[in-house]
Here is the input.
Amino acid sequence: MAAVLPWLVAAGGFLVYLGTLNAWVSLHSLATVARISGWLWQPELRQPLAFLVFYPFRFLPEPWIPLALNVFAAACAALVLALLTRSVALLPQDRTHEQRAREHSAFSTLSTPNAWMPPVLAAIACGLQLTFWEHATAATGEMINLMLFACVIWCLLEFRIRRIQSWLSATAFLCGAGLANDWTMIGYLPVFLAAILWLKGLSFFNLRFLLRMALWGLIGFSLYFVLPAVQTFHPVVHLSFWTALKSNLKAQRNALIWFPQGAALALALTSLLPLLVISIRWKSQAPHSGDDNRVAGFLSKAMFHFVHAAFLAVSLWIALDPPVSPRKLALGAPFLTQYYLPALVIGYCSGYFLLIGSVPIPKLARNQKLTPLQRAFARLTVAAFWILLAAMPLMLVWRNLDQIRTTNGPALRQFARQLYQSLPARKSVVLSDNPTQLFLVMAELGARRHDKDALLLDTPSLAWGQYHILKAAQFKSRWPVKPPTNNLEVVESGKLLQLLSRFSLQEQVVYLHPSFSLCFELFADRPSGAVHCLVARGRDTLGQTLDSRTAAANEQYWQELWIGTLQALAGLVNPKPGYAPQLAGLLAARLQLTPQQNPTASFLSAAYSKSLDYWGVQMQRLGRWKEAGLWFQRALELKPDNLAARINLEFNGQHQQGNNLRLDREAVQKQWLDLFAKHRKWEAVMNDDGPVDEPTFLFETARVLLGSGKPHQAIREFARCADLAPDWLEPQLWLAQGHIAVQEFASALRLTEDIQTFGLPQDASGMAQLLFCRATALEGLGRTNEAAACIESFVTQHPEQAEVLSIAAQLYLQSMQYQPALTVLDRLLSREPHNPELLSNKGLAEMQLSRYDAAITTLTTALSFAPSNQVVRLNRAIACLRAGQLDAAQADYEQLFQTSPHSYKVVFGLGEIAWRRQNTNAAIQFYQKCLALGLPASPEGKLVAERLRQLKGDGAK
Here is the structure.
């Protein structure tokens, strides 16, 4: 039976996993499928063993890959259960005196008629645990890691019995391979070394043994070099061997360092501590007569019984995922080993109680029978474990089966199909800043053998030259621009928009979800079912509103989707209270087994909620407030913590009641403090929850967009904010600033004229902003005299407002009106004589007016207050050079050269000093470096080139 039981358990587990197998991809397996299908562009540097094991799957037809991988994962999980069953059967039941008095098998393994119970119970607790079940039915690679871990434990237990060196050699090899493939094995390495030392005793220190173990460990450890070697020969993107190796080692180190210590301690207490206690072989107490010794013996037995019962209870509890389980503490990491170890404890403790409760002490005389109390206790022990064998799988299935059905059910593929069906039938470029959604569409396209010719691009990755090189090589005929030549080059936003513009000339460009991506600086958003078609924005910065036909079509789409799919999903995410909990529910409440949020349902509800919030905003901007309120409500039904939808619904309801006042930010933050606490910045709310259409938070959104270099989108949001709150002056000022950012000076000027006509800002900051916008707009339109008059007018009318004067000084400097700037700066410095920024600007103005001695004095004063300001030091160096103070200039330039050796201005200054001192060799050296750093076509470049010709013509001196 002992030889057959592991295979029976494995077969049973395999059938369970096949019956609940994911037929496609899950959120857990998506990364594995993406890696094997070739969707990832980053170098593959981690998990070399998984790379080798999964490599043959790359040769399968793309539609077969997800299912084949999932079947393989189920087979691996079944083997893990077989290893667990065998390992539990090999656990020695001789740790206490009571066990040694009852178990006399050759190696103290459990030999009672019910010896099959502990391995089966352990396999049930591990195999039906939710995290294990998820990874057993969807390929993630974690089962390979767990199988390595289980094999190490199995080899150690086999060595305890067989005493054959090959078992320990296999342990060393598996440990080495595990270290290369899984960073968590590094944490277990000391435990495995201690176990080997315990088994070998003093013979552990035999040099031949240590060398053999080290050799096998290094063979396994050599897997570290597989992926760096593979990456070196990548056909498109090359990465040096040592760079790749260090990257993997650094990632493992960071994972260990940054893992929360509190979570690590809690995990150790529930897994390693029980194993440590039960691994100790406690000494027997010498038999003595006397009441005191009988009491001490009773207390000792009771203590052992209590400790084993506690370990058994806690380990069974961990399998049900209480608040202290690895699933709740490991911050997203699977940590399957932390479920495997408690399963071993379950197996050992179950064997302990079956042995203690059901087997009489052999030393009793043959004619002495068990007392009725002993017989009843033995029967109760066996009955209790029969009940546990029946109750545990029922409890686990009751708690986890619905989760597995949701995770492996059709909902995720239905979501991918909706995105796929909304894609254009002809060629298209599909963009997304959500990799999960992008990979889901890739998986659906692969399952349909790419019947839609879509080129899928990850928007954040477009910032990297390496990504362009790979995609251009993959889509040679369709890539419209020449890719970068440097793998490490960062692609500027202008080049990115140029790429997308070229794409839009030949293919339809589509975005998979609502976004504030840089793409929307160039395109207007036209929702089309589940996706968003990007169309040329044209001259209208604000973008065009939806036409009635597009609005009606999308309204119908979302209505049908709500009735057919989303309403049921909302019920799954937020189940309505039903009848009173039955026995299982009451038991779960007693055990603090809180309801578990399904990751797949959470992902889908968040994605749909964001889209419904977006659609509600579009309806509200079309003036259909009632329909918009309904969509905001539905978005909240899908995701109750959608902060954008909650703000929108609050303002929408207020507006429908006739109150058009904007929300008070402080009151809103106080009301939904917990929702704001989930997001570190407002930008996270925008990206996670969708747009808002309420003045206060529209203003916040627009400022974030403007600050992140997305002025066209910021203008749209500022304009909407101004429409909803026409009496609020601040958005109009920022709207003018947005128009200036995109050089729409006429629009900015009109806004400032309206502000001056209907009401000036009441605060100094607003007046300063108005001055900046108006003067900059006039300057941009070429009306320089009017710009100068505008600045002078503001300075005259607001002589006491420091913010206005500061902006005026900056504007004067920008327009090269240095004397007026100097006058304003002197006025400001009379109030703040120690302000280094004002002193720096004054020194710059004096230098431009050729007042070099005064500039040097001013800049020296500025440096005394800000000695690390390199800009001030550079200006002083230039002033000293122009004043002929070469020693002082050289001192500043040399100090700057130490921190900025590649600064064109610094190198040019040192070259000028060498030129003036007729130090030909130094001048040639610095001038040549200037040409390498700067643009030869610039005036300085021409000057440097001419002087180099003269110097080389004269010869080196």
Summary: Residues 5-281+296-407 form one domain.
